[in-house]
Amino acid sequence: MLNSISETSYPGSISYYSCRFSDFRRFPDMFITHMSRPFLEIVVWAGILLLSFSGTACNEKSTFSDQSSSESPSVVRVGYFANLTHAQAILGLASGELEQALAPTKLETRVFNAGPALIEALNAGEIDLAYVGPGPVISAHVRSRGQAIRVISGSAKNGVVLVATEASGVRSLTDLKGKRLATPQVGNTQDISARHFLQQAIGDVSNVVPVPNAEQRNMMERGQIDAAWVPEPWGALLIAQTGARLVLEEKDLWPDKQFVLTLVTTTPRFLEKYPETVKKFLRVHHRWTQRLDQNPGSYISQLSEALFKLTQKSLPPEVLEQAISRVSFTDEPLAESLQSMNQWSYDLGFSRQIGSLEGLIDTTILDQVRHEETR
Q: Least packed by Cβ within 10 Å: which of 7, 102, 170, 221?
């Protein structure tokens, strides 16, 4: 059964509860009362040592039990955005393929506006698998010293645009000096990229303001923002609804004309404990990636219907046609662009250090899926 309300639960194992300090409350009070102080101290220290060893044993037992690869979770919670650049998630859910592939495991979903909030939910155990941009992924990996997150597949590349109102006079990056530029959220992928390229062009990022994608149209029409650095279909939608001008595509600012935009992620614990569930999920993701890569225009109608259900906003076919023409779908994580964004995140102060990205990408299961699909 597919639910859109995310539920969070943290069930404890039997071994955990069997190692609670409360078990020692049954120690007879009379016996403690009649102990001499030196003897009591010896007993206390002996108890502490015993608890240390038993706690270690309990932890080892729990860890061992978590390593079962045949387990299936009772529920899988998936996070994603109502963006064209998360099309595999949107279509996999709308078609029912993900739900069917994961059954009898229950599938729940949660829609986010931008990456930092999604990463917070992933770290808090509120979601298990997620489509998200590379900026927040890198920050999470570096801050946790490689313990918080794993990239298990790519999803999309490119598909980000800079649009501006006609009245703003913005025709290039240098024209943004003194203008108000909207990005979806502080620290998300578009925000990091916009600040990086703006710093290079005009040496100032003080005019960047966070505005959720869905609110940018009204602010642009009221003259409260002059431009927006956004993923599709929001860029094409702003052009159609406000008469904004397409200033540039972000990919044209990259040396090789491509950059990773969306990644599929999970936590190390979920990946280790439920590899078969991850494989089922990635099989559907991979199939939709191939379909969208080979003939993206064929799925415009399905995408339009699915996005309307998520946002309650209808996207004209011509808007989706323009938007999808700027996005490429791939399951390659594009590690080179991740390294670049890692450096930018540090330069802009979102990361305290240039952390190693070693261990971040694990496409072992994806490679298995690819091999099985080509047989």
A: 7
DSSP 8-class letter at 92 = H
Q: Does residue 2 lie within any of the structural domains?
A: no
Partners of 112 in beta bridges: 81
Kindly state whether residue 8 falls inside one of the protein's structural domains.
no
- Minimal CA–CA distance to 201: which of 163, 161, 170? 170
Is 331 in contact with 261 (CB distance < 8 Å)? no
Q: What is d(CA 13, CA 2) in angstroms, rounded to the nearest whole number?
A: 26
Residues 296 and 316 in one domain: yes
- Rounded Cα–Cα distance for residues 272 and 267 (Å): 9
Domain match, 152 and 265 both: yes
Could you count the other beta carbons within 10 Å of the beta carbon of residue 38? 8
Give the up-direction half-sphere exposure of residue 362: CA atoms within 13 A in the CB hemisphere.
19
The answer to whether 328 and 159 have CB atoms below 8 angstroms apart is yes
Clarify whether residues 144 and 194 are in a common domain: no
Query: Where in the sequence is the domain holding 42, given as residue range(s)?
Result: 14-66
Shared domain check, 207 and 168 = yes
Instruction: Record the tokens describing residue 147, joined without a space.
Output: 């313990």
- pTM for the model stands at 0.77
**Domain contains 1:** no
Q: What angle do CA 153, 155, 160 make, to 5 degrees?
A: 140
What's the pLDDT tens digit per position in 231-287?
A: 998 999 999 999 999 999 999 999 999 999 999 999 999 999 999 999 999 999 999
144 with 171, same domain: the answer is no
Could you count the other beta carbons within 10 Å of the beta carbon of residue 255?
A: 8
Read off the pLDDT of residues 289-345 as tens digits, 9 standing for 90 and up: 999 999 999 999 999 999 999 988 888 889 999 999 999 999 999 999 999 999 999
Dig out the tokens for 264 from the structure.
């599929």
9 within some domain: no
SS3 81: strand
